[in-house]
Amino acid sequence: MSHIDYLLHESATGYALFKVVFQQDDLASRMSEVKEAAEDLAKFGKMVSLTSYAVWRSAAEALENIHSVSEGIMTDYLKSTIELNVPASKKSKVVLGVADRNLAGNIKAAFPGIEAETSDTSEAVAYLLRGIRLHSSKLFKNLNEGDEEKAQLGLGHAYSRSKVKFNTHAQDNHIIRSIATLDNLDKGINLFSQKLREWYSWHFPELYAICSDNLTYATVARFVGDKSTLGDDKLHELAGLVGDDEEKAAEIILKAKMSMGRELGEADLENVLSFAQKVQSLAVGDVVAARLIQKAGSLTNLSKYPASTLQILGAEKALFRALKTKSNTPKYGLIYHSSFIGRAGNKDKGRISRYLANKCSIAARIDNFSEHPSKKFGEALRNQVEDRLEFYATGKKPIKNADAMDKAVADLLAEGESMAIDTDMIDAPLPSNAEKSKKEKKSKDKKDKEEKKDKKDKKRRHSEVKDTVDADAEVEGEKKKKKKKRHSEA
User: Which residue stretches belong to region Disordered (predicted)?
Assistant: First the structure.
């Protein structure tokens, strides 16, 4: 585009339309002067002139228009401003410079005689709009000094408050941010754990292979301390630190007695154990639910997922690879880190992951759509998963889902908590017209069923008659063939 006729500037005080003073052919050839003039008010004031300045009539109108501009929507106020101040030309289109690309597209659609250019499509528009933003307080002659800055500050605060207040996912933002922080924390924990393993391995190298989990390693290292003090009398306590596994605890004691590690000084050992304490304090427990919310984007999005999608959430690459190679699809994604799946046997991990995903889906919908969230349903669903694990292990029949939910509702109402349900309408009788329409519907359904049955009977009788006729015709044909054969033999 070789020329720019007008420029639209959305300020904190209103819409401003500037006319470009340069001739059509001058702007493209004098681009270097445009760049320099954007920094100098004396030169820039000769390039553009203020044509119209539509000031906001209230703070609410300012906020509404700024919201629309940020989303690329043209308001009626802006439309009327352009209609009144940008003349239509029958010979050629008028070129209007706009900052936002989406807003430019809406202006072009509303005004066929206007060609909207943005900083992405025209370098001249970018420098001219930059000059207007830089010198706006001087170009708007009706404003006092400092008015523009005050308006920007007030409108900025109002815009930010409205965005935070009306964000539908605001309740999930703290969870998503926390998980991002935990991810960064995990990187630090892994680095610290590696250093701890390296330092403590000088004293007790055999522990490295026995304890693969970082948190367990730090806990056991703090408990053991000097390996020469570890004896059989500490077997029970040590087993509690490694998941009640007495065999692993006995192995640690045996390896400590036969360890080839060197002895550490008192000060060195104290520093290593102090570092192990820091690693242990930084470690975070189970955060599977929060990671599911982060992966889905919000609790609302997670509640809309079916259980089958929630089950493999986080394993999308493995799923698409399996579909491409026509191999087995993954059984779990992020929920693999749940303790329930870890406690299940190898043959039951797929089944318990399906069951767990189903309960997680139900829990997400209850938490998202309940006006008064309660822990009762979550505890009931958790107990159901526990019962299912016990069923896989011992064969004990678990409680039915309907019975578990009924018990949770009863416990909730017994404690006086509200379920946001209009209990007055539960047993209310239907209106007379509703009963009448219900009866009419039943009679109509009965009539339709009878008609369908009659049609089926007619078809069946027709097919039976047809089969009989075909059979008679076939017998008659056989008789004729035999008669003809005897006649030929004679």
Answer: 423-490
Rounded to an integer, the average pLDDT of 214-235 is: 86
Instruction: Using alpha carbons, select from 115, 124, 158, 114 the residue that is nearest to residue 28.
Output: 124
Q: Which two tokens stand for residue 8?
A: 């639209």
Q: Is there a single domain that holds both residue 30 and residue 142?
A: yes
Q: Percent of the chain beyond pLDDT 70? A: 79
**Closest by CA position to 52, among listed 81, 83, 30:** 81
Cα within 13 Å of Cα(207), Cβ side: 32
Both 275 and 318 in a single domain? no
Residue pair 48/132 in contact (Cβ under 8 Å)? The answer is yes
Q: How far is Cα 366 from Cα 369, in angstroms, rounded to an integer?
A: 6
Within its chain, how far is the Cα of 372 from the centroid? 23
Residues in CB range of 10: below 8 A, 6 or more apart: 65, 66, 69, 99
**In the listed set 261, 282, 303, which residue is the last one of a domain according to the structure?**
282
pLDDT tens column, 257-296: 888 888 888 888 888 888 888 887 776 755 788 888 888 8
Classify residue 490: in a domain, yes or no. Answer: no
Q: Report the amino acid identity of residue 318.
A: A
Last-in-domain residue among 136, 165, 194: 165
Which residue type, as a one-letter code, is found at position 403? D
Dihedral sign for Cα 482, 484, 486, 488, please: negative
Structure tokens at 464: 């039976």
Place of tokens 């906020």: 63
Please report where in the chains the tokens 């597209």 appear, as a residue: 105
pLDDT at 335 exceeding the cut of 60: yes
Query: In the structure, how many helices (H) and strands (E) does the chain have?
Result: 24, 5
Band of residue 188 on the pLDDT scale cut at 50, 70, 90: confident
**Sign of the CA dihedral running 439, 440, 441, 447:** positive
Domain-embedded: residue 471: no
Distance (Å, whole) CA 346 – CA 332:
13
Does position 202 have pLDDT exceeding 80, yes or no? Answer: yes
Q: What angle, rounded to 10 degrees, do the helices at 266-282 and 170-200 form?
A: 160
Same domain, 420 and 296: yes
The string of pLDDT tens digits covering residues 123-153 is: 888 888 888 888 877 787 777 777 778 888 8
Q: Shortest CA distance to 155 belongs to which of 69, 50, 87, 88? A: 69
**27 and 131 in one domain?**
yes
Overall domain count for the chain: 3
pLDDT confidence tier of residue 424, bands split at 50, 70 and 90? very low
Residue type (1 letter), 468: T
Output the domain CATH number for residue 58. 3.30.420.220
Q: Are 7 and 49 in contact (CB under 8 A)?
A: no
SS3 55: strand
The C-alpha atoms of residue 290 and residue 170 are separated, in whole angstroms, by 15
Per 3-state DSSP, what percentage of the chain is helix, strand, and coil (rounded to 5)? 70, 5, 25
